Amino acid sequence: MPADTVPLISVVTPTHNRRSQVVRAVESVLAQTLTQFEHIVVDDGSTDGTAQALAQIRDPRLIYVGAKWRGANAARNAGIERARAPIVTFLDSDDVYLPERLERTLARFDQNPSLEVLISSFVSTKGSRCTRCVNREAFLDKSVLLRALISQTIFIAGSAITARYESLLAIGGYDSDVTRMQDRELLLRLAHRSGALLSEDIDWEKYNTENSISRRRDGYVEAYANLIGKHPYIADHYPDVPPYMIARQIIADTIKGRWPQAFSGYRANKSSEVLGYSLPELLRGYVVGRRWRRGIYDEFRRNYGARPV
Description:
The mean pLDDT is 93. Helices cover 44% and strands 20% of the residues. The protein has twelve helices and ten strands.
């Protein structure tokens, strides 16, 4: 693509000390069947030779932005601000696109000029284990999308999200104060503005690396408390959901013999200003919240053929 050609879609990738992984991610973008794109890689102060490795890739569609940002979300926002295309999509530095990702994504927006958000499907790889994370084809309006995000009944991840540039600007991009569950938090704010199209197309692969925040068991309760603090209406309108989410994490750790993590999660809950649930409240929330979530899933299955997450 000539340097003066306006890209049809912008890909934003934040990275920090993942030289080999980000090179793999960039190569998967440069191998796309759609060629009129730009790939903005925002390097959050890497010290592992990332800049030098990317400098070896001589393609004008690759744009390297190097600086010390305030974490991955600030880096994502820097990429959004730099984007020139009307459609912006994301690719985490340890993930890869399948060859037709951009072509299929852009076709969805071309077919529906009013579409603001697209959430695609993917394969998640953890070691030798691969899991198909497939959302059935459906358009969810604002209220349904909101409930799907709150109940966690659809598959989401950062590299699955595509949105119109103007929509991302309108909500202020990613929240730099959120270091985990940032994709859910972004989508919750987008859900107040528009619905989203779920695509059943598997068009990228998620790799869970050792230093991935989302892979860690510890810190979940603190991150969920932060999410509820950002969106207090969840606890107000769905009071059984937060204790259910906390309880199921603690129960899962307990069943699998992760006693320190279970105890740490309970203590984090008790010390949280926005959570602070007692053991009876957690048990009640687990029973009632699980029943409510099952009802949401059954509704999705009837209307959209959704699968539980």
